[in-house]
Structure formats: C-alpha cells, structure tokens
Design goal:
heterodimer, A: alpha+beta, Beta-Lactamase, Alpha-Beta Plaits, five-stranded antiparallel beta sheet, B: alpha+beta, Chemotaxis protein chec, eight-stranded antiparallel beta sheet, 41% helix, 26% strand, Rev_trsase/Diguanyl_cyclase (chain A), catalytic activity (chain A), GGDEF domain-containing protein (chain A), GGDEF_dom (chain A)
C-alpha cells in the first residue's frame, strides 16, 4: 500500500482525486464506506460513471473549472445540501449524507489534477438546527415575556389610576396590620400619609377602648384566612370623629401562604349619624325631644320586669297641663309649642338623669321613676314638678302661667302590669284635675 | 516602485471595471436582485493607509465587524493577488439568510452560514478573476475561499505593515436591501509591476519611458 493511500485512508474526510481527464485516481476509505463502490471499482471511472447520474451538476462544473482553469471552489451545504449520493456508513440508504465539498486544482507529476474534499456536516446541521430552534424559542419566549410585561405595566397603571380615583380608601397591610399601601383617599380618611404610619399597625390608630376588640378580630381573620369586616370609631389628627367601615380579604403569595390583606376603608360617619338621627326620631317627640309614647311604654315594661325580679318599686306619674287649649287659642299654636318645650325642659330638670320623661299626648307628659316607691319622696317630686311648671313662661311679647294636674301609680301597689298602672295614673290625674277645678271653680273640660 | 501615469491608472481602472462588472452580474444572478456598482477607485496604499480608508468609509461611531471572503490567486504570467470581498457582518447575514429563507434571530454567523457565504464569495471572485484571466489571456489558479469576521482595525492584520498594496475598490450595493460591499485586490510591488505591464499590453499603452503613440 502506498504512503499516499495509507494517508488518504486515515483521514476523517472524503478524498477523491481526479486526473487531468477527470478519471478517478484516488478514492479513499471514507468514500468507500459511504458510496456503493470500492476504490478498485471506482478507479479510472469519471465521477458521473462512478455515481451514476445522481450528481449535482455544479459538482461537474467546478471540477471542470478546476481542471481547465485552475480555480478552486466551495460547495456549501446550505446551497447544495447533498451533491453526491453518499450515505451514512452502516446506516440506511434512504437519505443522503449532508455534505460540504471543496474542489481544488492540484499538481501531480506535472499534470493538473483535481482534488475533492468532502466533509460530513450532518452533525453540524443538526447542531445548528437545534441552535436555531432554541433561538426561535427564545425569541418567542422573549416576545411573550415582553407582551406579558406590557400587559402587566398596563394593568399596574390601570390599578394605580383606579386606586387614585377610587372614592373608597384602599389599603394593603401585612399580617401584623402594618400598612404597606394606602391610596390617596385612604390617606385623607385617616389623616395620615403612608410614610407616617408605615411601621405601626393601623389598629393602633383607633381609640384605646376599641383596640383590643379590633385587634383580636384582625388576628382571627389572619389565622382563619377569612374576611375581616369591622365598623370602628376613629379620631382623626385634625380632631374630627369618624365612623369607618374596614373590610379586607387575604392576599396569598405564590406558595398559597397569606402574605397580607387588601381591602377598603370607607367613611360611614354620615350613615351612622343619619341612622342615629332616625333612631332618635323614632323614639322621641320631635317638638320637645322627650321620649315618645311608644318608647316610654317599652321602658315601662322593661322597668316593671326588672323591678319584679329584684322586688323593687316603680312609680309612674301622669302630668296634664291645665287650660293649655286656652293658651293655644289666645296666643296661637307657636305659643303653645313654646309652652310645651318649656314645660318639658323644666320637668326634665327637676328629675334624676335615670328617670324617664315622655310626651305622652298633646299636653300630657308621663314620668317613670325607678326605685321610688315611698310616698313622701313621691310627694316631694310631685310638688317640685308642680312648682316648676307653675313658673311664668316667656312668650316674647308676654308671660303666661300654666298649672298642671298630676296622677300617680306605683308598682306593685296600684297594679303589676303597664296597662293597669297607666289606667290608674290616668284616673288619679283626672281626679286631681277635678279637685283643682272644683277648688278654682272651673270646668274640667277646659283642660 | 515607479509611479504610474494617469493613462496607466485609467487603463487599470478600466480593467477592474470590466472584471468587477462580470462579478456584479454573477452576484446579481445569485441574489436575484439588481446590484448597483460604484465607479472603481484605484489607489496604491500602505496596509495602514488602507485600514484608515476603510475606517473612514464606515458610519461614524460604528464598530461593526466586517465579513471578509478572501481568495489568493497566482497568475501564470507572474503576478499574485489577494481578492477580498467585504460586507458588513449583518449585511452578509442578511444575504445568506435571505437566500436560505431563514429568519432565525442569531446574532453571529453560524458555521454553515459562513460556508454558504464562502461559496457566494467564491462564485463572485471566480467570475471576476476569470474575466481578468480572459483579458490577459493568462491562467490564474485560485485557492479556496476563506471567510473571516473581523473589525476594520484588525481586518488586514495578516498583511505586512510595510506592504504596498494596489487597492482596486468598487462598491456594490443592493438597493432593495441597503447593503453595500467592497471588492479589494491586494498585490505586492512585483505583482503590481507585472499586472500593470499586462494592462499596458492589453490597452496598447506605451512602455515606460516611451512617448505615447497618438
């Protein structure tokens, strides 16, 4: 074996040497393993005869150019993927091996020959295809990432703008109730900026009496991962008192652990004030602000059942103004209203704060005295009321005086239920009025 | 080295103009697009002079790498030349990927793409050299193409700094793709003399020292 063919058989590249007539002179082992011909069979044949008609025409052309003009040429895989019918060694012969061919003129023994160097680029093609696939994947991922980023930015902007314009206070707090976010409205409601209260639980801003209750409610919400909802009183730094409704729901992190709460703070002061105004109106007389008849009777029932349990005594007074109609007729209804308001205030004043006074009818008042059963004390109160009522009342342009008749009933002496006590007091009041009329010679119908 | 007369330089320009016209036509056929050629400029420069010239032709501040496709030729009549085809790297990528119908976003040229570029350069350069060989009625054997991607500053590092280089420069631009490249022929002093002698013969110029035949 010649040195040349030994060398040719040792390299990992295909070598074909063609003489000046284009006949095969060298056909190395690498080619033998990938073509269907041995070196002996190929020797002396042209490329076209050795490979049949299955050669890329450009191979024939560049071989011609190399032999005739001495030019070199490269046939890249990208432009000529499989120019020669070569197949992977030992593999199936259904697809040609991917190749790249260099064609160069060489001088051998003073004549010009042509050398074909054939490289197997199958692995390079596979590697580059993978690289490109990864690059495409990366580009797609990058595109979806940037789309997601744009969407995120948009949604963040939307949220920020929504939070800014929201009529409710929005806040985010950690499990310790320390605020990590407050929108502008929330800062207005609290009267504090987020920076001021960032490191303290918002619960600490509440009146001391309410803190323990709200704190335990917050803790319960954190522990049970449920909604927090409370209505709380709040004194703002500017001295204004508010009622706030605070509601919050748990926020979970990517591990489903609760990372904090997000929720709303709404100023419900007006709602509270309206509700208490409505409640007052439902229970009180609009003119005198005393309890109304309904409310008074409910208090009476409650007082009786309480007294029944502790064996206490309860006194009920019925006050009726004498000749009130006359004042109305003479001075007008406005004057009548002034008189009723003045009498209500005076009766209220002579009683203890725990005693109940109600405007029971037009010019009738009722008084409920808890634990006031003994006769002398009751008499003293009746006298006090009578005197207070009898003082002159200023109508602006003149003064008027008015008297009153008072009837009394005591539990349990005069009845053990509201109805019988009310009837008793009413009767006693009429009896008293009759007596006063008899004394002054006026008719009871004037009442 | 002797200096060349204006007449000689004109003849040189014309010789390159003819050969580069062939090359551009071949390139145009490969990319199936019209190629515009600028008027060739012929200069004799030092290596560093050429580098400076190339740097100044780049947009200000650009540090773009150039793809250099290089083939060495030996003419039987006695001159040697390095034929260089230069494209901005991104432009070369655009040509190759367009031809391969591939828009994969890889920043640098891959091995197979570089091979394809070598083949394209090879076809253009061979076509140019064949037309020169025809003009001079000589034979030129050429090496395989070699592709390198380099910055302008290091583009000619393999040449000797003291080399005198005949630079035939022609701009090729693909109008549709805003891409322009250059073809350079680099020769040493003896080759320049030899080459000029052949050009003179081709255009029937008077021998140096003779008065021109009018």
């Amino acid at each position: 074996m010649s040195c040349g063919s030994l060398l040719g058989d040792s390299v990992d590249i295909g070598l074909i040497l063609l003489d000046s007539s284009g006949n095969i002179r060298l056909w190395n082992r690498w080619i033998e393993q990938r073509a269907e011909l041995t070196a002996a069979q190929a020797s002396g044949l042209t490329l076209a005869r050795a490979f049949g008609d299955h050669i890329d025409p450009r191979v024939v052309l560049v071989v011609r150019e190399a032999l005739d003009f001495g030019w070199s040429a490269r046939l890249s895989h990208a432009l000529h993927p499989m120019p020669l019918p070569l197949f992977p060694p030992g593999g199936e012969r259904n697809e040609r091996m991917k190749q790249s061919i260099d064609v160069t003129p060489v001088d051998a023994d003073g004549t010009r020959c042509c050398l074909l160097q054939i490289r197997d680029v199958t692995e390079t093609v596979r590697r580059e295809a993978l690289l490109k696939q990864q690059a495409r994947q990366l580009r797609n991922d990058l595109q979806s990432l940037s789309r997601a980023q744009v969407e995120l930015q948009r949604s963040e902007m939307r949220f920020r703008e929504l939070a800014r314009q929201a009529p409710a206070g929005l806040f985010e707090a950690d499990s310790q109730a320390c605020c990590t976010f407050l929108n502008e409205r929330c800062e207005q409601i609290l009267g504090h900026s987020r920076d001021c209260i960032a490191r303290m639980p918002w619960v600490d801003l509440l009146p001391i009496d309410d803190q323990a209750r709200v704190r335990s409610s917050w803790r319960l919400a954190v522990e049970s991962a449920t909604r927090f909802a409370e209505e709380v009183r709040y004194a703002r730094p500017d001295g204004k008192y508010l009622w706030m409704r605070v509601e919050a729901g748990p926020l979970r992190d990517e591990n489903e652990r609760i990372s904090g709460f997000i929720g709303t703070m709404v100023d419900v002061t007006e709602f509270h004030e309206r509700a208490s105004r409505n409640e007052f109106r439902a229970n009180h007389d609009g003119l005198t602000s005393l309890l109304n008849r309904d409310r008074f009777e409910r208090h009476l029932r409650a007082a009786l059942s309480g007294a029944r349990e502790v064996k206490d005594r309860v006194a009920l007074l019925f006050i009726d103004l004498d000749h009130f109609k006359q004042i109305n007729d003479t001075h007008g209804h406005q004057a009548g209203d002034i008189v009723l308001k003045a009498i209500a205030a005076r009766v209220r004043r002579v009683l203890r704060s725990e005693d109940m006074v109600a405007r029971y009818g037009g010019d009738e008042f009722a008084v409920l005295l808890n634990g006031m059963g003994d006769e002398p004390a009751l008499r003293a109160i009746v006298i006090k009321i009578t005197h207070a009522v009898a003082l002159p009342i200023n109508l602006g342009h003149c003064h008027v005086r008015i008297g009153c008749s008072i009837g009394m009933a005591v539990y349990p002496d005069n009845g053990d239920d509201p109805a019988s006590l009310l009837t008793h007091a009413d009767k006693a009041m009429y009896a008293a009025k009759r007596r006063r009329c008899e004394m002054t010679g006026t008719s009871t119908t004037l009442a | 080295m002797r200096s060349f007369s204006e007449l000689e330089m004109d003849a040189l320009t014309e010789a390159f103009n003819l050969s580069l016209g062939e090359a551009a036509a071949t390139f145009s056929a490969i990319v199936r697009e019209e190629i515009e050629l600028s008027v060739p400029t012929i200069e004799i420069l030092s290596r560093d002079g050429l580098t400076q010239r190339l740097e100044s032709s780049q947009p200000a501040g650009a540090s773009e790498r150039l793809c250099r496709i290089n083939q060495h030729f030996n003419a039987a009549s006695g001159f040697q030349t390095d034929a260089l085809l230069l494209f901005p790297e991104h432009g070369s990528l655009e040509i190759v990927r367009r031809m391969l119908g591939d828009d994969t976003p890889i920043q640098h040229i891959t091995e197979l793409e570089q091979d394809a570029l070598a083949e394209i350069g090879n076809i253009i350069i061979n076509s140019c050299m064949s037309s020169l060989a025809n003009l001079f009625k000589t034979e030129m054997t050429g090496s395989l193409p070699r592709v390198q991607s380099r910055t302008v500053a290091s583009l000619l590092d393999d040449k000797d700094a003291s080399d005198v280089i005949l630079v035939a420069r022609i701009g090729m631009s693909m109008a549709a793709h805003n891409l322009s490249g250059f073809v350079l022929f680099i020769m040493d002093v003896p080759s320049i003399e030899n080459f000029m002698a052949q050009v003179s013969r081709l255009f029937h110029l008077p021998e140096p020292g003779e008065s021109p035949v009018l």
